[in-house]
């Protein structure tokens, strides 16, 4: 593959803050790269350098001659008088080298793009001035997708898209020719679209093969190697201290050094949450009744968002809400939060319910305070599950370092303000969380910290989000809203929602935790009887894997208990190797069978 962009010892910084130092890398003509990193690490700076919107402080960025680069920035500057036709088919805001598109009526590709982005109802002559920011952004994205480009650079393309729109965009980009670079917090999207990852951190850019999941495993491996190196250094220190202690007796007891096994980071990882214990805690805090909707109805103009909906939410329920923009997800959360009343019917709330509602707005943050003061204004001690945290400790979980604690709220970026908003909500110690698009503007590391925190949080949680990764990670059940007034339980999760809404399901790698053939799929190489037998075998293999993983955990515990009994350790180690081999073989059979079932 030919190289189209090269970085040669590129450095860039602002004031006294260096972001990139001596970065050298290349982009090939068929690369599909996802860019990840903490907020403020330099992701957007990397994109601006790559597209030559900014020049480096030192080094050189080289483009192939006549390279056509199409860029979707986070904010679009569109003329208020411009129409959809001007933006999508014209060249008003596109860089040089892109021609206007014509023959709208005969160009099925253009119509397909607008329809896939949820804008089939918008006419070409509609002015963009009165439109919302989300609609303007989707129109700008459509203008890029209808044209051929050698390099497509997208900064948060999934913002303002619903689950079906994100699924369509992923499928479109997978079949699109040319190089792609994308910055997004949507981890499912990264896995579905990207074949390589660039991590921006510590002034450099590290390249990894594979999507988000592969990058996560590679980063864990890097940390493991670093831990092993540190363990060796500690061992040398122990020998040095032992030699020193052969002299005069020390006044303190001999220090103990705990050196973990090299694979401690990835072995013996428990389940994300103990659902039974959390439900028991939630019942104790909430009682039996949380929410009950009785024939609740809400309309906006002539549209019915909720039509005589009956729904019961219990203690400890973890519910994901999915649906198109405007289907009524935010309205439903507002009903539960008590900020809106139903047009008819009723919403009953338990007497012990103490909700916290995370809206999509940021105006409620106190701009005159500093970060730590904004948290202390809400609470001085925070108890989340079995953890008790100080405001500064909670802020650290959400990525606010010691230096950032004294930053004025008014100086925070959009992502940092969103983090602070979530932080203040959790500091009130609610027992019900109502979260409306909680992942907006958050980086992947902050999302991982948030999910880890929510895993140990006892209480009821209802999340309205287009972030498929988040919904599948923290929610136990999924409900769909289809814009027709219904609230539908979806046992098959988001795949079932996409099948019911008529959207194509973009496949992602199967895992032992979830196997589902797309609803309504036709039989392939397997007959109906063979398919049923295969699904039963999948369940059996999944249980076998779970039992083998449980046995591994027990063996690790026994190895720790009998660490000084060499014969016992040798026997346990031999059994552990056998169990691991059996688990690997079982997982391999499971994956092979899952592929057959998924393609049936």
From TrEMBL:
Keywords (A to Z) from UniProt: ATP-binding, Coiled coil, Nucleotide-binding
- The answer to whether UniProt assigns keyword ATP-binding to this entry is yes
Does the keyword section mention Electron transport? Answer: no
Locate the coiled-coil region(s) and give their ranges: 531-589
According to the entry, every stretch annotated as the ABC transporter domain falls at: 5-227, 291-510
| PROSITE patterns tied to this protein | ABC_TRANSPORTER_1 (PS00211), ABC_TRANSPORTER_2 (PS50893)
**What protein is this chain from?**
ABC-F family ATP-binding cassette domain-containing protein
């Amino acid at each position: 593959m030919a190289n189209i962009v090269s970085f040669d010892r590129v450095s860039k910084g602002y004031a006294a803050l260096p972001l990139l130092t001596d970065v050298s890398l290349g982009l090939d003509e068929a690369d599909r790269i996802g860019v990840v990193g903490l907020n403020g690490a330099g992701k957007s700076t990397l994109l601006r350098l790559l597209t030559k919107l900014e020049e480096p402080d030192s080094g050189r960025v080289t483009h192939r001659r006549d390279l056509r680069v199409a860029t979707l920035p986070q904010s679009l500057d569109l003329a208020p008088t411009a129409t959809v036709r001007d933006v999508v088919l014209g060249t008003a805001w596109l860089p040089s080298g892109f021609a206007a598109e014509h023959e709208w009526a005969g160009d099925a590709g253009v119509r397909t793009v607008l329809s896939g982005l949820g804008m089939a109802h918008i006419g070409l002559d509609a002015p963009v001035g009165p439109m919302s920011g989300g609609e303007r952004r989707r129109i700008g994205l459509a203008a890029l997708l209808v044209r051929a480009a050698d390099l497509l650079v997208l900064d948060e393309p999934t913002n303002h898209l619903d689950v079906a729109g994100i699924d369509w965009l992923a499928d479109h980009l997978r079949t699109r020719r040319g190089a792609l670079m994308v910055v997004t917090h949507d981890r499912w999207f990264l896995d579905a679209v990207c074949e390589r990852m660039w991590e921006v951190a510590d002034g450099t850019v590290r390249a990894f093969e594979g999507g988000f999941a592969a990058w996560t495993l590679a980063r864990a491996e890097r940390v493991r190697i670093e831990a092993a190196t540190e363990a060796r250094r500690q061992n040398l220190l122990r020998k040095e201290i032992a030699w020193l202690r052969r002299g005069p007796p020390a006044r303190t007891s001999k220090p103990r050094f705990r050196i973990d096994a090299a694979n401690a980071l990835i072995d013996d990882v428990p389940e994300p949450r103990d659902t039974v214990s959390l439900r028991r805690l939630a019942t104790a805090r909430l009682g039996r009744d949380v929410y009950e909707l009785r024939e609740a109805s809400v309309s906006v103009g002539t549209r019915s968002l909720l039509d005589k909906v009956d729904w019961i939410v219990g203690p400890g329920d973890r519910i994901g809400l999915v649906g198109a923009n405007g289907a009524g997800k935010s309205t439903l959360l507002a009903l539960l939060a008590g900020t809106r009343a139903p047009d008819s019917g009723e919403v009953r709330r338990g007497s012990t319910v103490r909700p916290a509602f995370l809206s999509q707005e940021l105006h409620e943050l106190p701009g005159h305070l500093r970060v730590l003061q904004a948290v202390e204004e809400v609470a001085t001690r925070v108890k989340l599950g079995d953890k008790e945290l100080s405001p500064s400790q909670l802020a650290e979980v959400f990525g606010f370092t010691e230096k950032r604690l004294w930053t004025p709220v008014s100086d925070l970026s959009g992502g940092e303000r969103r983090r602070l908003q979530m932080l203040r909500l959790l500091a009130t110690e609610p027992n019900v969380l109502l979260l409306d698009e909680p992942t907006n503007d958050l980086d992947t590391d902050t999302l991982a910290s948030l999910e880890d925190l929510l895993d140990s949080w006892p209480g009821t949680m209802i999340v309205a989000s287009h972030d498929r990764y988040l919904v599948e990670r923290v929610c136990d059940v999924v409900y769909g809203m289809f814009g027709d007034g219904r609230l539908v339980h979806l046992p098959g999760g988001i795949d079932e929602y996409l099948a019911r809404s008529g959207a194509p399901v973009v496949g992602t790698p199967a895992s032992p935790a979830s196997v589902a053939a797309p609803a309504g799929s036709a039989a392939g190489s397997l007959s109906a009887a063979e398919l049923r037998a295969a699904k039963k075998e999948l369940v059996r293999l999944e249980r076998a894997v779970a039992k083998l993983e449980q046995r591994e955990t027990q063996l690790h515990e026994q190895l720790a208990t009998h660490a000084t009994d060499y014969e016992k350790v040798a026997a346990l180690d031999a059994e552990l190797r056998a169990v691991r081999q059996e688990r690997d073989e079982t997982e391999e059979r499971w994956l092979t069978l899952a592929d057959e079932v998924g393609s049936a």
